[in-house]
Amino acid sequence: MTLEDFQRFIDEQDELLRVKKGADYGERERVFARTIKLGEEYGELCDAVLASVGDQRKGKLKKQTHLDLRDEFADVFIVTFLLAKVMNVDIMQALDHKVRKIREKHNKQL
Questions:
Q1: What is residue 54's DSSP assignment?
Q2: Which end of the chain has less neighbouring CB within 10 Å, N or C?
Q3: d(CA 93, CA 7)
Q4: CB-based contact 45:72 (threshold 8 Å)
Q5: Distances (CA, A) of 95 to 21, 81, 84, 102, 110
Q6: Backbone angles phi and psi of 63, in degrees to 5
């Protein structure tokens, strides 16, 4: 999958979510819902990482597979892009800008 394919997927999902929630579900609600969802997905990723290295507490311990971990990373990525879209942030432009800043900073340190 290319980033362009992924962005089309994000656009499709955003539209499906808008239709599903209806006209009464405004931008503010979408921002809050996606922010909360991102927190949930991040927590699930943390659980999967802890389980994969054997540090999950016994009450939450379940056998994690590499596929579970892969899915949790993907969920965080998808929800992050959906949140950026609803907040009118061009995530690709933001990534490009940030990567350049990091390279400039670390290249000076090397």
A1: T
A2: C
A3: 13
A4: yes
A5: 29, 11, 11, 10, 22
A6: -70, 115
Give CA angle at 37 (51, 83), nearest 5°: 120
Which CATH number goes with the domain that contains 14? 1.10.287.1080
Dist. CA 43–CA 40, nearest whole Å: 5
| Cα angle for residues 68, 72, 77 (degrees, 5° grid) | 150
- Percent pLDDT > 70 in the chain is 87
Residue range of the domain that includes 29: 3-109
All residues at 6 or more sequence positions from 34 whose CB lies less than 8 Å from its CB, including other chains:
79, 82, 83, 86
Identify the helix (H) or strand (E) that includes residue 16.
helix 3-21
Number of structural domains in the chain: 1
- Bigger pLDDT: 15 or 62? 15
Cβ-contact 45, 76 below 8 angstroms: yes
